[in-house]
Design brief:
The complex is a heterodimer of chains A (420) and B (289).
Chain A (H helix, E strand, L loop, with lengths): L11 H15 L4 E2 L8 E7 L6 H20 L8 E7 L4 H13 L5 E3 L4 H13 L3 E4 L16 E3 L4 H16 L2 E7 L2 H17 L2 E8 L7 H9 L4 E4 L3 H14 L6 E6 L2 H5 L9 E4 L11 H11 L7 H20 L4 H8 L6 H4 L6 E2 L6 E2 L2 E6 L11 E7 L1 H4 L15
Parallel strand pairs in A: 2-3, 2-4, 4-5, 5-6, 7-8, 7-9, 9-10, 10-11
Antiparallel strand pairs in A: 1-3, 11-14, 12-13, 14-15
Chain B lengths: L1 H32 L6 H42 L9 H23 L25 H23 L1 H11 L1 H6 L4 H26 L6 H16 L4 H21 L6 H13 L13
Helix pairs in contact in B: 1-4, 1-7, 1-8, 1-9, 2-3, 2-7, 2-8, 4-5, 4-7, 5-7, 8-9, 8-10, 9-10
Classes of the chains: A alpha/beta (420), B mainly alpha (289).
Chain lengths: 420, 289
């Protein structure tokens, strides 16, 4: 058939074929990292490997893979090897839920890790709860996961937004001033982060000069920065994350705002600092984990091991989240000698991470009442031009223990309902 | 408040100028070849990343010149191999093809340069505000506006006074007659596509200095450019110019008074224009039918 004779209209068969292909693609096999074996324990991981969170998701995967490698080298879990099944949530709640259902129902996973996106993490936690599968949320920060939406089977490694705010707020107030202006990403995570910081500000007796709600994916920040500077605050808190944070800080630096107002924020990540030119690496922040911790056991070796697996790049907080999520499962299952989700979930209450996994000076444990990991906050300043290693872009001033930054269990709103 | 709004109008014009540059490339391709190029944002990203790769060797200025040409060459190759095959067919074909290409470009850049953003540096003297009061007018933003003005002028001169430019304009109105008069339409379309992608590549380099260079950055800039074309009127390059500036200003003013709607206002503007004047402000009736 010549090309010219092809009809320009879509015919029914083509549409049906395309629909069928799309359907098959949805149910195609997940990416299996380790070789399939007859008697393995399947672990599922869902993260947004495409879209705006792809960089942090990939770092979480590096951490999970490294943990699987270590676990399998030491004999696996209860003598069985771990088989890791990785799925892309594509930063979409519907896709994430579909992938979670598939991993649990079709692939028969015993343990689930994910997601970076808070909305997806909440949604797949609902699925894992219905199916009674133990689940560790590696990187979704919104408070509800270990707050009012908590589940008996769901634990979380990364901080809550409240913990992040509490780690920096007092320092900012005492050192830089009591008039704060916020630039907040206009979605669940941003709102809870801003509310947490504003509550701390109120507690200390400070005032808020304004809160600019910017849509996710904002490219031009000048309108918000014009308003923020006109309000003349002492501190400008930049709360967006990822590419939005990079864009915003680049423009803050180009406008020279940091020369008049102290620039700060709560959560900062190495992935973001690495994407900025030196002049934009400014401000006071908290890191959830940092790779340079002189004298802390195990950190140097962990950094060296990850460098070998990531083309020379150091681990970020995300790499550690992934690593810790996976190690948690192996440690508790081997200790309890069972794979039963309810028993393991119960055993994780007050479970303390050993030195070679926690990789930080303070005690690090899962709190029994809300299932939140009490992990440290690394508070300090972004570094414009690193003196030594080009990836040493943050100067840690203090490391605050998780149970100092976290509100008491009674205030989280979490009421765990255990299965009968 | 008046000062705040004036600031934001000026700022909106600066942003609008950037949308114009991208939308003009899109518009050129759409007008002559009826291709709705969803991969335009992808070409923009490629332009930015090529500049980032070349910068250590050629410096910012060298990268600014070389990258758009290299992007145009990549665009030309893709046009010859793939897009030219769907010319003359239902626009749905090219839409689906370029939609797929957009995904391939995004994952391709992620594969080659990594998922994490890259720091694209601009000369220090450009990244300073001009005065303390008008701190949001930086050297780089003025440079961007100047670049857009120069490129728009060159484009209009090219289309008005060169033989090829006149043929492109004639082809936009009636391609069959142009073909019947002996013009090599195949070459004309390829050249036109390359010029459009050149503008996308240049937009990418300019955007890289202002925004974070990241595989997904193109998608956020693509929609405003489409809206600029629809508001200005499909088929009209001056319309695209006005449309781009209009949505920039509308978005700038809205960000000052009701930030959450700063993106939605573009769509509202488009809806209003489509309701009152479906062909767009300067568009001609019957395009894209």
């Amino acid at each position: 058939m010549s090309r010219n004779s092809v009809s320009t209209k879509l015919d029914r068969r083509t549409v049906i074929k395309a629909a069928a292909a799309a359907g098959v693609a949805q149910f195609a096999s997940p990416f299996v990292w380790s070789a399939r074996a007859a008697d393995t324990i399947k672990v599922g991981m869902i993260d947004p490997f495409t879209g705006v969170y792809a960089a942090v998701a990939q770092n979480e995967l590096i951490g999970v893979k490294f943990a699987v490698e270590q676990i399998n080298a030491k004999g696996g879990v209860l003598g069985r090897k771990i088989e890791l099944l990785v799925e892309d949530s594509a930063n979409d709640v519907g896709t994430g839920v579909q992938k979670a259902q598939k991993l649990i129902d079709r692939d028969g996973i015993q343990f689930l890790i994910g997601d970076v996106n808070s909305g997806i993490a909440l949604a797949i936690a609902q699925v894992s709860n219905e199916k009674k599968v133990l689940h560790v949320v590696s990187g979704g920060h919104t408070d509800g996961i270990t707050g009012k939406d908590c589940h008996w089977n769901v634990y979380r490694v990364c901080n809550t937004t409240k913990m992040e705010a509490n780690s920096v707020a007092e320092l900012l107030f005492n050192k830089y001033g009591k008039k704060w202006h916020f630039i907040t990403p206009d979605y669940a995570f941003g709102h809870t982060l801003q509310e947490a910081a504003a509550a701390d500000l109120q507690k200390y007796g400070g005032t808020m000069t304004g809160n600019e709600l910017a849509p996710l994916g904002t490219n031009d920040w000048s309108a918000y920065l014009i308003k923020a500077r006109a309000a003349n605050p002492d501190v400008l808190l930049v709360l967006p994350q990822g590419l939005d944070m990079v864009n915003c800080l680049k423009q803050v630096a180009q406008f020279g705002i940091q020369k008049q107002i102290h620039v700060a924020g709560l959560q900062q990540e190495l992935e973001s600092l690495e994407a900025m030119p030196p002049e934009a690496r400014i401000g006071t922040w908290m890191f959830e984990w940092y790779w340079k911790q002189p004298g802390v056991p195990g950190v140097e070796k962990f950094v060296a091991d990850i460098r070998k697996r990531s083309g020379g790049k150091v681990p970020t907080a995300r790499t550690w989240f992934g690593y810790t999520s996976m190690m948690t499962y192996a440690l508790v299952a081997n200790r309890e000698k069972t794979l039963d989700s309810v028993k393991l979930a119960k055993a994780l209450g007050n479970f303390e991470l050993p030195a070679d996994v926690k990789l930080q000076p303070n005690k690090c444990y899962y709190r029994k009442g809300d299932h939140q990991l009490m992990t440290s906050a690394f508070v300090g300043e972004a570094v414009e031009v690193p003196a030594g290693d080009p990836e040493d872009l943050f100067k840690v001033d203090t490391i605050v223990a998780g149970d100092k930054t976290s509100p008491p269990e009674s205030e989280t709103g979490c009421a765990l309902q255990w299965p009968a | 408040m008046t000062q705040l709004i004036l600031f934001n109008v000026t700022n909106g014009l600066i942003i609008g100028a950037f949308y114009v540059l991208m939308a003009l490339g899109l518009s050129l391709i759409l007008n002559l070849s009826n291709v709705i190029n969803f991969a335009h944002g992808g070409f923009l990203v490629i332009g930015g990343y090529i500049a980032y790769t070349l910068e250590p060797y050629l410096g910012f200025w060298g990268a600014l010149v070389a990258s758009p040409f290299l992007t145009a060459i990549i665009g030309l190759a893709i046009e010859r191999v793939m897009i030219s095959r769907v010319y003359g067919r239902d626009p749905l074909y090219s839409l689906l093809l370029t939609f797929g290409l957009a995904f391939i470009f995004e994952d391709g850049t992620r594969f080659i340069w990594g998922a994490n953003g890259k720091p694209f540096a601009i000369p220090a003297f450009l990244s300073q505000p001009l005065s303390n009061e008008f701190f949001f007018i930086t050297g780089y933003r003025l440079f961007m506006v100047a670049m857009v003005a120069v490129m728009v002028s060159l484009l209009f001169l090219f289309l008005r006074y060169t033989r090829v430019g006149i043929r492109i304009r004639a082809g936009t109105l009636d391609l069959e007659t142009v073909s019947a008069l002996g013009v090599n339409v195949r070459a004309l379309r390829s050249l036109n596509f390359a010029v459009g992608i050149f503008l996308a590549g240049l937009s990418g380099v300019l955007a890289g200095g202002q925004l974070g260079l990241e595989p997904t950055m193109g998608s956020g800039l693509l929609m405003p450019s489409f809206i600029a074309i629809i508001v200005g009127g499909v088929g009209s390059l001056p319309g695209t110019l006005v449309g781009g500036l209009l949505i920039g200003v509308a978005s700038g003013i809205t960000a000052a008074v009701f930030p959450s709607a700063s993106e939605a206002i573009m769509y509202v503007l488009m809806a209003v224009v489509l309701l009152i004047r479906p062909r767009g402000l300067f568009g001609e009736e019957g395009m894209l039918t």
